Amino acid sequence: MNKHHESTGPADEQQITLRGPAELADALPYLMGFHPNDSVVMVALHGGRGRFGGRLRLGIPQSPQEWPSTAEQLAECLVKGSERRGERPDAIVIFLCQDPADGETPGQVMERLRPLGQRLRTACGALDVPVLEALCISDGRYWSYCCPDPRCCPAEGNPLSLPGTSVMAAAATYAGIQVRGSLREMEARLTPLKTPSVADQPQALDAAGAALVPRILDEQGRKEVARETLVLARALMKRLREAPTTAPSAADVQDDSLISHDEAAAVILGLQDRETRDKAAEWMEGPEAESALRLWRALSRRCVGPYGEHAAAPLTLTGWVSWSTGDEPGARVALGLALQADPEYTFAQLLHQACNQGLDPETLRRCLRGERSSRAGRSSHRPERSAAPRAVRPPAVRRKRAHTGSVRPGTAIARRRARESRADGRGGTKGGRQP
User: Is 95 within 8 Å of 78 (Cβ atoms)?
Assistant: First the structure.
């Protein structure tokens, strides 16, 4: 068995030493904050003791033809991202996590994913960063792609430790770190509802679009729609906050029942305007944050049928509030789903990159606080300047993927928002929803 000494600490004062594939496999949920399903996870290691650094996760591409390009992109993303933070990785650990399909055994999953594991190892090696360990985790068992010794890494794999019994679990419990269930469970809280109760939601969204788009195309009407959207959103937040406390397992169901189809449709359509969404993003801390997070999650679940792309706005707000309040795993999941809904959604791109690079959200929080204060000051002295109308994007239209470049995300977000404030009054994006 390959011997490793990876040091990590839930707190700066505490460090844990993980030795070998078994302890690495058991540590994965605590490194990510959830159990990754159907995922490639790569973790950078630094220094002679293998201190954990940057990490990234991507869903395993279904087509093996995509594996070579995916491996190269992931390796470059992790290495270059670490370099931008000033510390090139000394090694990388790879995890391939996937449960068996119908009629498939865990061992067959391991063999099927072996070429992907090899592609990832080769891609990292091409960047002069060795892969210290590559593990496949499936149905409660793990295999090492790096260890050839059948005495410690048998062909049938090894069982994972029982939940809560590993050295990492003990350290995480001591530090107050929790695993938030599986990735699949976290995504289910944010994906479109499939219950009969939302059968009429698409019609409500159609009606809201027919009523709001003509008004948004009018300069004065756009301002009125923005005001109405924020007023309604605040009213819904108050309703959610004042609802009787319920069990966590039933909280989302209760929230869904407290918001009507028409109310959800009006806020979803209103948030497609960039400036309205940015004002809603100011509810990111203090007593507003919890009820805002519940509202954005509920609205994400209401983007059903042909309106799936409209979920980019509430999903991005979900990710932003999660990140702002210290829930980085939840933020990554929400922002990843936002980019699935609309790969070109600029705000989600920047937030996702910033969160993954471990930047401090306080930079953006300060910017949002400043804009709120400035707006309050302007309104007390003179009417707010009007901006040119922007159209709501039809649900069927898709856009090409955008590239964010190598600008530091925290700085890029603040700079972008400053430019948008100075540009108030210029024309909107061509016939589309706001980024």
Answer: no
What secondary structure letter does DSSP report for 344? T
Residues 6+ apart with CB under 8 A from 50: 4, 5, 6, 7, 90, 91, 132
C-beta pairs of 234-242 under 8 Å, 24+ apart in sequence: 236/263, 236/267, 236/295, 237/283, 237/288, 237/291, 237/292, 237/294, 237/295, 238/291, 240/291, 240/294, 240/295, 240/298, 241/287, 241/290, 241/291
> CB pairs under 8 A, 24+ apart, for 199-204?
200/261, 201/261, 201/264, 201/265, 201/302, 201/304, 201/305, 202/304, 202/305, 202/306, 202/307, 203/261, 204/261, 204/262, 204/264, 204/265
Residues 6+ apart with CB under 8 A from 422: none
Select from 216, 197, 210 the least CA-distant residue to 271: 216
In whole angstroms, what is the distance from residue 347 CA to residue 337 CA? Answer: 13
176: exposed, middle or buried (Cβ count in 10 Å: 0-12, 13-18, 19+) = exposed
d(CA 303, CA 311): 6
Q: Which two tokens stand for residue 35?
A: 């159990």
pLDDT tens per residue across span 396-423: 433 333 333 333 444 455 455 544 444 4
pLDDT tens digit sequence for 304-341: 999 999 999 999 999 999 999 988 889 999 999 999 99
What φ, ψ does residue 39 adopt, rounded to 5°? Answer: -135, 145
Give the rounded distance of the alpha carbon of 275 from its chain centre: 22
Q: In angstroms, rounded to a whole number, what is the distance separating the alpha carbons of residues 424 and 95?
A: 46
Half-sphere exposure of 27 (CA within 13 A, CB side): 24
Report pTM. Answer: 0.69
The confidence score (pLDDT) of residue 391 equals 42
Q: Are 291 and 238 in contact (CB under 8 A)?
A: yes
